[in-house]
Amino acid sequence: SAREGGGDSASLVNDADTTTRRLIEIYLAIYDGAESFLRAEYRICAMFVAVFTIIIFCLVSWGTDWDTTRGGLSALSFLLGAATSIVSGYVGMKVAVYSNVRTTISAQKPGWKECFNVAFRAGAVTGFALCGFGILILYITMLIYREVYPDPQDWVYLTEAITGYGLGGSSVAMFGRVGGGIYTKAADVGADLVGKVVHGIPEDDPRNPATIADNVGDNVGDVAGMGSDLFGSFAESTCAALVIGSSVGIIGGWDAMVFPIIVSAVGIVVCLLCSFLATHIHPVREEYQVEKALKNQLISTTILMVPAVYLAAIAFLPEEFVLKSTVGPGFDTLHPYEAWLSVSIGAVGGLIIGLVTEYYTSHTYLPVREVAEACKTGAATNMIYGIALGYKSVVIPVIVLAFVIWGSFSLGDMYGVSLAAIGFLSNLATSLTIDVYGPVCDNAGGIAEMAELASSVRDKTDALDAAGNTTAAIGKGFAIGSAALVSLALFGAFVTRIRFASNDTLFTNGVNILEPVAFAFLVVGGMIPYAFAAMTMKSVGKAAMEMVCEVQRQFDENPGLLDEHPVERPDYDACIAISTKASLREMIPPGAMVLLTPLFTGLFFGVNAIAGLLVGSLVSSVQLAISMSNSGGAWDNAKKYIEKMPRDSDLGGKGSSIHKAAVVGDTVGDPFKDTSGPALNIVMKLMAVLSLVFADTFFSINNGGGIFKLN
Description:
Blueprint: H1 2-63, H2 68-107, H3 113-148, H4 155-198, H5 211-244, H6 248-257, H7 259-281, H8 289-316, E1 321-324, E2 331-334, H9 336-361, H10 366-374, H11 379-392, H12 395-424, H13 428-450, H14 455-501, H15 516-557, H16 572-586, H17 588-605, H18 607-644, H19 657-693, H20 695-700
Antiparallel strand pairs: 1-2
Helix pairs in contact: 1-2, 1-5, 1-16, 2-3, 2-4, 2-5, 2-13, 3-4, 3-5, 3-7, 3-13, 4-5, 4-15, 4-16, 4-17, 4-19, 5-12, 5-13, 5-14, 5-16, 5-19, 7-8, 8-9, 8-14, 9-12, 9-14, 10-11, 10-18, 11-18, 11-19, 12-14, 13-14, 14-18, 14-19, 15-16, 15-17, 15-18, 15-19, 17-18, 17-19, ...
């Protein structure tokens, strides 16, 4: 009997060795795919950054009467912002890829604590590394620039030069978000349509040729692209607050001027303390605790930020300080409590928008369940309900944003609005933690399916991923709300810079939207997000068509791939190559449109045209981004809700005709929520920060009238 036991033991060891080899093989395939794509993408970004650095140096120097110091510092800031954004995205991808397979292995062990903690800590490493690195580089750069401008009266030039940092971060984020989004959704849509809808094989089945590309996409789109995007938001909101509040330093000194950076630094400490709630104080022991643990992170960090920022405001801001009004010739006298209230309004507003987003995208609540019920009558009614849900979900977030803008402006003029934007992003480390957690769990489930592990492992990773989907939607709500406020703050900074450059001859009483040029370009600005969304959606569609054809070709030429235990493996590399080429080719036109539109508008039509363009783009982008993101999230979770149902239920469960209708909705929703929707955040921010960087240049052409003298 001892010999028989030894035989069983040897068999188990052999099975374990085979599983381990398979896990390593899948991990390396995902790693190599993500690495090669990011290297190719960042090579293109590097060429763009090199060219645009020269453009910034020349145009800013020319616009400031050939002050090459200001031109050089602006160009250097742009270079540093772009480099930091690239590093942020790359580090995020590395951490996610390393953690995916570790989460799969942890899910094989009993209990929930270990697998949850592995995925959560992967997100935490990315979140804290990105926030800490961004603050460190920005602050060191400002210290170096202070050596050039030691006099507090000249710090206005320092803050103007530092805005290039935000432009660099957002420019790379644009290509990262669009390129990564096209990559991941082309693979996802292709894998879903041919695999699940046509041939009825499960998601992430190793027989599907597009499954490795799909998992690579999670890392390059949902992690690397999203990391660069949120870094850009942090950099831009900080730069806007520094420009508007540069005169704070004249009265309160250096510490008072860098108060926006201090708020972000306080946020890192608060997020660090709150992270122990999920991993040590109240660890996850049951499935139902997963979503609760993630949601509690957002709630606890927001609550703790309120007293923490109050202490920072009392410690670093003077008892009273004066800022020039954005509208009108007067001055505003502010106090630390008003700065604290502005940050707090932003933080609480962000949480409300996040929770409203959860209501509209989680299958725990009625809206998503209504979408699932609509699948009973086919894909068409599913689509109608999903689009209607997206439009309806805009109402409350926009009202909250309006209240935050009114409240923060009443407290501290545009400086208050910029602080509210920083308040939205004050728990950025936690938002990033939760955002990265989702793709890590998604990949862990894909790896479990491809390695043909026990169904209990896949059930566990699916539960982790479902919670991650909902909380990722909350994170998207935060990101969209913060992008709207950041854009408005950057617009305020642009108006401030033009007033300063023109000695108060332009925009003294604000922007007159009834001026023909301003109103005309307001309409043009409102069109830009729709043109951008159309370009990115069509790009995903074209790439997905190529992917569908390739997957079907492999099935047609090798029917044995569809056997339950096929002898051969699909050609995964062919699908990875399609996604890579398509995303690199298709990311350039929409990025070029967003970058060149404000540049040419300012050069040819002047500052009034820019003002209208930015307002139109902001108002249009925020509504479209919320509706697209929430429609996509609702379709995704309606599909997951149906998949949870048993076969004999009203909804039919996985594999039923109702489920196939839900898969079609989810497929359409993929580019909504992961390509076009999130990238619209960058559209409104990037146009505004580019206008701010070139403000002096635009004014220098016919006193702000542009080449066509339209002032």
